[in-house]
Amino acid sequence: MAAELLPAGVHWEAVVVPSYLGDRVLARLGRESGAVICDPYGHRLIWLVPPGTTQGWVVPEATCVQLLSVAQHVTVPPGWCTRSAFTHWVRGWAEHGLTDARLLYVVLDAVILAEHGPREHESGAQR
């Protein structure tokens, strides 16, 4: 069985995080992290979260974090693939399930703050 291109927004949404942030997020989440896909060519980690749970997230454009939901797709490796030069699981779907989206958002926000400093909201006020 090969990797499959699957639609986001049906069984899960995907949070795509560049490796420079994703490695730190994964370390902070530890055992609380659900399934994570590694895309070594894109230098990114991809968390799977329940559908509809990223609505309202605010992530700075400069971080290159992407929220993938309806009408977008993710390359999902086969369940057994944990080490590969291609897309593979860092934490498998079968063993770890979906990540709690609220927890992921809090940790991601803290990592972004540590890496990029305070950010301005649309109103111009700092958080």
UniProtKB/TrEMBL annotation:
Source organism superkingdom: Bacteria
Which protein, by its recorded name, is this?
Answer: Uncharacterized protein
What high-level taxonomic lineage is stated for the organism? Bacteria, Bacillati, Actinomycetota, Actinomycetes, Kitasatosporales
